[in-house]
Design goal:
The chain has one helix and 51 strands. The protein is an all-beta fold.
């Protein structure tokens, strides 16, 4: 926070400002009050630095006061108030000068500006009546809306008071001149020349490449040669080149925007390391995708950061305006879909990435949806991978993807489960809980079980989902009866609920389609949610049977390192860096938290390579060692949370080095080993 009492030597006239001024509405009147100050707030579409502030002094008062606040979001409607973080304050400054400052804000930040002239009376420069408390302005060439901001206090005496907004269209905003500098979008990736616009209802084109340098993508724009007016873009982080048509790849989405005016560069802040493969899809339009395709056809060689890189065509057979995160493919001989990609080179890439789960596990996992919280799983896949098939009720590791929804063939068997579940005899048996099962049973409300005697309750709830007597997978719902399609492909047994009407009436446009796949060769299970529109009550997930409703979670927020299930609920410690990056020369906090009660001491494991050692053979089911340790450090627990500072040498030779960490606690009775392990942390050391 900057608090400024400015002597004359620190101010300069408005004519000396070389930066850009944020456009304001025209002057309407001076609002005078002893206990009220007015201003405006906005969300910046790009990263900016505010360099100067001045309150227009139409009443000739002679002194001004201003305040800048970092806000968590839009201001609440008066009389409700909120309090943000004051980042700048100045009072009793001559009103004929611009007050200098240097306030950095990232793209997407909410910024509040209050200001008036005077001391005992606040004289706010009110906008004209035509603004109605809102004003369409521009910032660094991007549209931005200014909204009225008010505080029922005298800003000259002090700042950091509660503030409010006003209902849309009401009140007038206080005018404060804001001068700013916006960092330029440094470089655009070179693209092939425009060839033509490819139009398709359900096809979006783009490009992919492997970056030779570390970079941040700061902006995206789809060329709109046919003047459609809106654009849609999606960015993917890929582990390798995507599958070539007609095969598809899924996952990796890190950014999506649709219906953005096509004259704008869409701001973003996406970090990629050297060697990462980046996919970008984009088109203009809504019901029809207008793809700007390049000339010549095939790969295009350009440069990024002065190094050669080859762009290749990426394609998806979907309408990007209507849906994101759909399967996509490489098309090596096709014309590249042209999307402008603006980037900045990154000097250092220190990262701290969590992975693995240690011992953390739940018997069940599920999410409950209702009328007030509809299903949000469209286009998502979840894999259940068993640790082994030998132990009864074998534990699973859950991760997002891979794989994708498969449309059932015309030859699929139609199942019509009713009061009695429909039995499906498998061509080969499915391994689960140390046994091989040759038959599965499909229940009429979205469940698949290994038993025909699930004793399915009539009321949909988390408690009933978990308490049924046998293991079950599925999307338990309260919709009307419907058919289920079954087919086998390779070792997969595939159950598909296809276009189930939300209203329970055939022909409803709000339909639900999802799929369960059981891999008879590996014991893996896949959930694929294609389109889910029902506002009814659902319980989605897996339960072992006869248990309490433990294991509820937000499935759409599944972390990249996934989560575990086991034969019993296990709470384990968590290891993080408290949001701090492993920068050379700094001290990194390694924080062990969520330590179970009764734990007696802890051990920190450090090494230069990751591992995934299953401790089930040592009577610690669902427990894994994630590090090949070269050093260990026993430590005294200070309660549920213990911080171990780790000094990092300031040695250039360590740039890019990966250090892996994991903590363990001695917790008698937790398992026969009395040891509980945390997740792992992958620390990439760098200069920033």
């Amino acid at each position: 926070m900057h608090k400024l009492l400015l002597p004359l030597c620190l101010v300069f006239s408005a004519t000396a400002i070389a930066q850009t001024q944020l456009p304001l509405p025209s002057f309407g009147s001076t609002f005078a009050s002893t206990s009220a100050t007015r201003g405006f707030y906005f969300q910046t579409p790009v990263a900016i630095t505010i360099t100067g502030l001045r309150v227009p002094d139409e009443a000739g008062i002679g002194v001004q006061c201003v305040e800048v606040t970092s806000m968590a979001g839009p201001a609440p409607v008066y009389p409700t108030t909120a309090t943000g973080t004051q980042v700048f304050y100045a009072s009793n400054v001559p009103s004929n000068v611009v007050i200098p400052c240097k306030l950095d804000f990232p793209a997407g930040a909410w910024i509040g500006v209050l200001g008036a002239c005077g001391t005992t009376t606040m004289n706010s420069s009110y906008s004209g009546p035509q603004s109605g408390g809102m004003f369409a302005s521009t910032l660094a060439g991007q549209p931005v809306t200014l909204h009225q901001l008010l505080t029922q206090t005298n800003l000259a005496t002090a700042g950091a008071h509660p503030y409010s907004g006003n209902a849309q269209g009401l009140g007038q905003m206080g005018r404060i001149e804001v001068f700013y500098a916006a960092p330029p979008l440094s470089t655009a990736v070179g693209l092939p020349a425009f060839h033509t616009t490819n139009s398709a209802v359900a096809a979006t084109r783009g490009l992919y490449f492997t970056t030779p340098v570390s970079l941040r993508i700061r902006g995206l724009r789809v060329p709109d040669e046919t003047r459609n007016g809106v654009q849609n873009v999606e960015v993917k982080r890929l582990s390798a080149a995507p599958a070539t048509l007609p095969a598809t790849t899924s996952g990796g989405e890190v950014f999506y925007a649709n219906n953005v005016p096509s004259h704008q560069i869409i701001p973003c802040n996406l970090l990629f390391n050297a060697g990462d493969t980046i996919g970008v899809l984009g088109a203009c339009g809504t019901t029809t995708m207008r793809n700007s395709v390049g000339d010549p056809a095939g790969p295009f060689v350009t440069t990024i950061g002065g190094q050669a890189v080859t762009l290749r065509r990426l394609t998806t057979a979907t309408n990007l305006n209507a849906s994101q995160a759909q399967p996509f493919s490489a098309d090596p001989t096709g014309r590249i879909g042209r999307i402008e990609v603006y980037y900045e080179l990154v000097d250092g890439n220190a990262t701290a990435t969590l992975f693995g789960n240690g011992c953390e596990a739940r018997k069940n996992f599920f999410e409950v949806f209702s009328f007030s919280s509809p299903v949000d799983l469209d286009g998502m896949s979840l894999r259940m991978e068993p640790f082994d098939h030998d132990a009864f009720q074998a534990p699973y590791h859950m991760t997002l993807g891979p794989g994708s929804f498969q449309m059932p063939p015309a030859s699929a068997t139609v199942l019509v489960p009713g009061a009695t579940p429909a039995a499906v005899v498998l061509s080969t048996s499915f391994p689960f809980g140390g046994q091989n099962h040759s038959t599965m049973h499909v229940y009429r409300r979205g469940l698949v079980s290994l038993s025909p005697n699930l004793n399915e309750p009539s009321y949909i709830s988390a408690g009933n989902f978990c308490s049924m007597s046998w293991p079950r997978w599925g999307c338990w719902h309260e919709l009307s009866s419907h058919v289920v399609k079954y087919h086998e492909t390779g070792s997969l047994s595939v159950f598909t609920w296809y276009m189930v009407p939300s209203s329970g009436v055939a022909g409803s446009t709000n339909t639900n389609t999802w799929q369960l796949k059981f891999d008879r060769a590996t014991g893996q299970v896949f959930f694929h949610w294609y389109t889910m529109h029902s506002p009814h009550t659902w319980v989605v997930g897996f339960a072992r049977g006869g248990g309490l409703p433990n294991g509820g979670r937000d499935l759409s927020a599944t972390p990249s390192h996934g989560f575990n299930t086991g034969a019993a609920d296990v709470d384990a410690p968590t290891l993080t860096t408290a949001g701090t990056l492993p920068v050379l020369g700094a001290t990194l906090p390694l924080v062990t938290s969520d330590v179970p009660a009764g734990s007696q001491f802890g051990v920190l494991l450090l090494g230069f390579a990751p591992d995934n050692i299953n401790l089930a053979a040592f009577d610690a089911p669902t427990c894994f060692v994630h590090v090949q340790p070269v050093a260990t450090d026993a430590f005294v627990l200070t309660g549920p949370t213990t911080n171990l500072p780790l000094p990092i040498p300031n040695e250039v030779a360590f740039v890019g080095l990966h250090l892996y960490g994991q903590s363990a606690t001695y917790t008698p009775g937790a398992n026969p080993l009395s040891l509980l392990f945390s997740n792992g942390v992958d620390l990439r050391l760098d200069v920033q």
